[in-house]
């Protein structure tokens, strides 16, 4: 039976005990995990984790935008930033090149829509552009996750995606692209086969959807 969990709780930051429980579960599944105070701390830590000159793809993420991490990566000149490179390419004639660049960067940086206390990450997408890199195409992955995204288990994670994240993302997409979003792709990361490849920066504050 799915865990009963009111939708309103999807916006409340999880307390320290639950964050530590999730961190322990993720660590047992070969993710590298750090619990940080806030987005400012994550912004500093991301700079430490990514070597200068690395090719870096940032997935579409309110967490990255609000924290300033997206701008740090894509406008600083410190990295080979994939997003601005692909946005400047022709969507039709360079479609294969765009797909390959996004799928296999040195580092992918993004967020997820839910993290479970049992140690799973859940990411939904309308286009799936960031998911190949998340799943294993990138040599390294870094996810910045606000404390409000912590849920007990996978059923609660899927409810969070559908009941909370999708309406918010659809409203954003309607303004940005003139059409609502949809859960066309869904990725569940239950473990990391390559220890330490994936780093989860769990924040004590709420940020993003």
Structural class: alpha/beta
Residue-averaged pLDDT:
94
Spatial sequence of strands, sheet with the most strands: 1-10-7-4-2-3
Tally the helices.
Answer: 8
The tally of beta strands, per DSSP, is 10
Strand content: 15-25%
Distance between the termini: 26 Å
SSE map:
Layout: H1 16-28, E1 32-36, H2 39-49, E2 55-58, H3 62-67, H4 69-75, E3 80-81, H5 82-87, H6 95-103, E4 107-110, E5 114-116, E6 121-125, H7 131-137, E7 140-145, E8 150-151, H8 154-177, E9 185-189, E10 198-203
Parallel strand pairs: 1-10, 2-3, 2-4, 4-7, 5-8, 7-10
Antiparallel strand pairs: 5-6, 6-9
Task: Considering the chains and any ligands shown, give keywords for the structure.
40% helix; four-stranded mixed sheet; six-stranded parallel sheet; 20% strand; alpha/beta; 209 residues; single chain
Question: What is the gist of this entry?
Answer:
It contains eight helices and ten strands. The chain is α/β, with parallel strands linked by helices and 209 residues long.
